[in-house]
Amino acid sequence: MQTNAAYDLERFAPREQKPRLRVAGQPKPKRGLARYNLKWIKAVAFASVFLALVCSVLYSQVQSTELSAQIRTQEDTLADLQSEYTYLSNEMEMKTNLSAVQEYATNTLKMVKMDRSQVTYVTTGQENKVERSDTGLARLAGEISQTVASFMEYLTP
């Protein structure tokens, strides 16, 4: 039998409803962090650890830069002080050099180098007497005075 689709009444017939299945003891959806996927929690934890590491590396770089700048300034200060020390050492050596002291005494203070005749030797013995060595000029004056004295003796009756 041929039926016309316009008059097919089976289409309008009530259908049988499928029974709804319900599983007993199904857990209720979790609240809070547990309802998020564990993958997201791991990603957030990894991102926070990574961010903390990046921040610590940046902080250590800043500290390193500051310390290297301080080292450079201290090295410059040390170089200046070493230069000043070298200058002052040379200055002190020039001023305490024996030939420089003699030249200063001779030229500026108009001092004369001591002659051997100006040296007096003192001996400590039983007698307290001072012996002076005669120099060429003193010896010559002594001989002249002795000669004059003996000549005067010869002239006097």
Automatic annotation (TrEMBL):
Keywords (alphabetical) are: Coiled coil, Membrane, Transmembrane, Transmembrane helix
Transmembrane regions: 40-59
**Annotated coiled-coil segments of the chain:** 64-91
**Keyword Membrane attached:** yes
Please give the superkingdom of this protein's source. Bacteria
Which protein is depicted? Cell division protein FtsL
Q: Which organism is it from?
A: Ruthenibacterium lactatiformans
